[in-house]
């Protein structure tokens, strides 16, 4: 038997193949039938039996002594009526388990908190509806804030220590008063907040953008980015020769058990295995390396900034844009201090970090990955 590594390996298990929102930076929101995407993923829910089989295979065939299970990719996990059972089972197997949600649905939230995942990420992009609704379409920020309060109430009720991270997607229009208000709200709840530059997904659309192909609707979105996708690629290009952490240290599994190339692809054409259960880890890694999309992605440096591996460079560019539009805030994704106002100075974030509250020896691997991600986006997505 091959010796397992102590390094973390991350599995994004998309237990829900659907989302209740239509965020324009995510393919769930920007995909159309006439798009560059030839075939969108199917919709559906993962069965609990399949999930158990997947986790058994990860324990047996996976490369890591420290696998981490994230119950999301392009889908909204709280929509799964049995999501709490998935969390409980992953934890029972001794695996780190995380959830990322847009928090516009609370039907399963209480049960999820009772199950006690290691972390819950909340994906949002504003404090007021006028701001939030532009980039989290179909979402209601007042509902999100009410559910954030419920999160705290449920954690108290069940005496759960869960790391809550609010992923605040930074665009030009939301990086001022809305961000400051959300920080204040998160400080009240003692939830951490992590501002991240919003990026354009999926990979397929970024590659089309390089060719000058962008829909009128997506062009409106380009004007909202603090870092234009083309500029992000230019900045990442000098670093394109570094390895891709998503390809080497993570695997995505769809609700039907299929395996997409990575967390940033959307087209069914880039599914590298029809069944995670029927392919070995080594064969799966080889299939990823053989996929033709990795070439143009890595040649153009997409893997660098979409994996948040060029934080300092992107921070400089994003903050340059904020200064140009007279925004007084300076933002750093992963350095301290995270947020500084030229008028007020350092804006404190009061919650403890995950490392400070975790009882585990090692916390979430590939910390910088969004989506999403998040997806970003990201959700990650959401």
Please provide a brief summary of the model:
By secondary structure, this protein is an alpha/beta fold. It has 16 helices and twelve strands.
**Would you identify the CATH H-level superfamily?**
Aldolase class I
Q: CATH architecture, please?
A: Alpha-Beta Barrel
Radius of gyration: 19 Å
Low-confidence stretches: 362-380
**Share in β-strands:** 15-25%
Helices, by number, come to: 16
- State the separation between the terminal residues, measured CA to CA: 39 Å
Shape descriptor: globular
Give me the count of strands. Answer: 12
SSE string, helix = H, strand = E? EHHEHEHEHHEHEHHHHEEEHHHHEEEH
Total discrete domains: 1
Structural class: alpha/beta
Would you kindly provide a written description of the structure presented here, covering whatever features stand out?
With 382 residues, this protein is α/β, with parallel strands linked by helices. It has a single domain, classed as Alpha-Beta Barrel (TIM Barrel), CATH 3.20.20. The protein is built from 16 helices and 12 strands. A 7-stranded parallel beta sheet has the order 6-5-4-3-2-1-7. A 3-stranded antiparallel beta sheet has the order 10-11-12. The protein has a two-stranded antiparallel sheet with strand order 8-9. The longest helix is centred in the middle third of the chain and has 17 residues.
Which secondary structure elements does this structure contain, and how are they paired or packed?
Blueprint (H helix, E strand, L loop, with lengths): L4 E9 L13 H4 L17 H14 L2 E7 L12 H10 L3 E6 L7 H7 L3 E6 L4 H7 L5 H17 L5 E8 L6 H13 L2 E6 L5 H8 L5 H7 L6 H8 L8 H5 E4 L5 E2 L10 E3 L7 H10 L3 H6 L2 H5 L4 H14 L4 E3 L7 E3 L3 E2 L7 H4 L25
